[in-house]
Structures are given as structure tokens and as C-alpha cells.
Write a structure and sequence with these properties.
Largest sheet: 4 strands, mixed
Number of domains: 2
Strand content: 25-35%
CATH class of the largest domain: Alpha Beta
Distance between the termini: 66 Å
């Protein structure tokens, strides 16, 4: 006989099955530092490795993937959304030079479909494994009446650690530093409200095939977020490039200039040369469909840059070579300057940060 809770729309048995289906994927992210395995009320992580640190700092980040989930739901493809989530969360932690330790996730849904939840978590676990992050816990919450049966949203939080003397940021940036761009894999997980608006106005469906985009529209738009954590940590640990990286910026919500400005010191400025790269077709096609120029979207989409590294000028070539050896396109886009100038057209700081000034100039290649 069904319980009153089940009659109200909450299926605890389905939730238990979802946990069973995801157990193996989650356990694959666990090293000896994780205690207790899957299913505890709290995740446990042994931080004894921090004992030799002179002044260990914990870094934490939380995020979701925004309305990209609407596209996953529309084409019933859920195995990459979790991968996106890790990119949005863990790659914020490496920005300060921290090594991620562990992550937790939260999935809210209208109805628990065990295989769907397992697919989402499998994506999270895969990306956690690629970034050296233990997935130590999570929650799947069924919200009938609040969310539709096929609706869900995902969020996560992670914690990392860095030695205080190795902390990256605007305080390290100096006159003449070179700004290196790291290529994105596509839209990543920002600006999908604009994407969906453009498609709706043009009458394009997620299951339609687009020759211009080079495939099924929904699948192209679900291209997983590129992960930068492991290549950047390897770069920071390279003895030949010790101290070369001064600050990092994750290009997410807010666009290109605003995110770079956040990691530059007050009084500094840089002009980013658009001619140094060509935005991928997905950006060009969506801009054209929406009746916008690429320049119109610079505050919304990453246009091909997923991360910036501000590095010492004499090490820029070595940094670029090291990043490209890890399979990520990298190139110089500008050089940091200090001093008085007319800041018309520049963006100065963002998200509460009183940082440097950034302006994009020129025409895309």
C-alpha cells in the first residue's frame, strides 16, 4: 500500500534506487582521504596533509549551471550537466591557486527518475575525477507541486586549500605583465537565457538540425564546459615557471572584460585585442540569428575565452607552451599597464570588486 508521502508525490524508494545507481561513480572519486563512503549524513575528508602548511587557507565556491538545464531536459540528455557543474564550481577555486579537495552537490527535482539522477551524478563524478576532487556527499530533493515532473536544477559547492604565500590575485600583478587567454570549449554554462531567447524568436527547436552549427542544435549547445583545474595546477607546480602566474580569471557570468577586471589591481589597465582570436561558430551563428554583433554579446558569452592568466612578461611564452601541451589553446591578448589615462569605454572591476580597467578593441579575426 502506498504511503501518504508517496500519494503526496514523494517517492523515497526511487530516491534510494538513485543512490544505489550512483554509488559506483561517486566512490571512484574517493581516495584515502575520504572516510565513511557514500550515504552518511555528512561527508568526511582527512585534511592531515595541511599540517606542513605554514598558513593554510581554505577556498570555497558554490554555483549552478543556470538555464542550460532547460536544454538538457528538452532533448532528454542529462549526462553532461553534472560535468558543467564541476567546471563552474571547481574552476573558481583554482583561480586563487588553491587545489580542490572535495565537493558536494544538490539536485532539486519535481520527480525522481533514478536513471536520470544517476546520469547527472555520473557527470559530476567524472569531472570530479578529472580535477582531483572527491565527491563526498550530496542531496536529491523531490519537490512535487513546486517543480514539474520533468523539471530539475543542480547546484554544488567545493572546498580547496592553498598556502597563503602562494595565493594568486591582483596583489601580484605588475606593470608589463602579459594577459594570456585560455580557449573555451563553447558556451560553457553562461548566457543560456539569451541563447534560448534567440532560438525562440527565430523558431529554432532544440531537436532541429542546423548545418550552420554543425549538428543537432540541442547537442551542440550542451557541449560540456572545459575543465582548467588540472592543467593550471600542473602549470603552477612547474619549477621552471615558479611564480610566473600572478592572477587568474574564470570567464563566467558578466562576460570577458568584467571578469578580467576583477583580478587586476586598482590603477592598472589593459586593452584586449579582439584580433588575436576568432570566436567559434556557435557564437557567430547565435549572434547572427539574434541580430547582434559579436561585440554586443561580450558581456554575456565568453566568445572563446574560458580563463585568463596574468603572467610575468618573460615567462609568457613558457606559460603558453605549458598550457597548450595540456591540450588547451592559449595565446597572448594584451599587456598590463599602470598610470593615468582616459578610461572611457573601459570596464572597471565587477561584482563588488574595485579592480583594474579593461577594454576590448579591434575586430575579431
Amino acid at each position: 500500500m502506498a504511503s501518504k508521502y508517496a500519494e503526496a508525490g514523494v517517492d523515497t524508494a526511487a530516491g534510494d534506487l538513485a543512490v544505489e545507481l550512483m554509488k559506483s561513480a561517486v566512490s571512484n572519486t574517493h581516495g584515502p582521504e575520504v572516510l565513511g563512503g557514500v550515504g552518511g549524513f555528512a561527508g568526511l575528508f582527512d585534511v592531515s596533509f595541511l599540517k606542513p602548511f605554514t598558513r593554510p587557507l581554505l577556498a570555497t565556491s558554490t554555483d549552478g549551471v543556470g538555464t542550460k538545464v532547460a536544454i538538457a531536459q528538452a532533448i532528454d540528455k542529462h549526462d553532461s550537466i553534472g560535468f558543467d557543474l564541476v567546471g563552474m564550481v571547481v574552476d573558481d577555486i583554482v583561480v586563487v591557486g588553491a587545489k580542490p579537495m572535495f565537493m558536494t552537490d544538490y539536485i532539486a527535482c519535481g520527480k525522481v527518475y533514478p536513471t536520470r539522477i544517476a546520469d547527472i551524478v555520473a557527470g559530476i563524478a567524472l569531472a570530479c575525477a578529472e580535477t582531483g576532487t572527491a565527491l563526498v556527499g550530496g542531496e536529491t530533493a523531490e519537490h512535487p507541486g513546486l517543480l514539474g515532473p520533468d523539471d530539475y536544477d543542480v547546484a554544488g559547492a567545493a572546498v580547496g586549500a592553498v598556502e597563503a604565500d602562494e595565493l594568486l590575485g591582483a596583489h601580484r600583478v605588475t606593470d608589463g605583465d602579459v594577459v594570456v587567454a585560455l580557449g573555451s570549449s563553447g558556451l560553457h554554462s553562461n548566457g543560456y537565457s539569451l541563447v534560448r531567447h534567440v532560438l525562440a524568436e527565430r523558431g529554432v527547436g532544440y531537436t532541429d538540425f542546423s548545418e550552420e552549427l554543425g549538428g543537432n542544435v540541442g547537442e551542440v549547445l550542451l557541449e560540456p564546459t572545459r575543465l582548467y583545474t588540472t592543467p593550471l595546477l600542473e602549470l603552477l607546480a612547474d619549477p621552471e615557471l615558479a611564480g610566473a602566474v600572478h592572477s587568474l580569471s574564470h570567464v563566467t557570468g558578466g562576460g570577458i572584460a568584467a571578469n578580467l577586471a576583477r583580478v587586476l589591481p586598482v590603477g592598472s589597465w589593459v586593452e584586449v585585442d579582439r584580433a588575436t582570436w576568432t570566436p567559434a561558430p556557435v557564437f557567430q551563428v547565435l549572434s547572427e540569428w539574434g541580430g547582434m554583433s559579436l561585440e554586443d554579446t561580450e558581456g554575456t558569452w565568453n566568445l572563446g575565452i574560458g580563463m585568463f592568466a596574468v603572467v610575468a612578461a618573460d615567462a609568457a611564452a613558457g606559460v603558453i607552451a605549458r598550457i597548450e601541451a595540456g591540450g588547451i589553446p592559449a595565446w597572448s591578448v594584451g599587456q598590463i599597464s599602470f598610470g593615468e589615462r582616459d578610461f572611457g569605454g573601459f570596464e572597471q572591476g565587477a561584482k563588488g570588486v574595485n579592480g583594474g580597467a579593461v577594454r576590448l578593441f579591434g575586430t575579431y579575426a
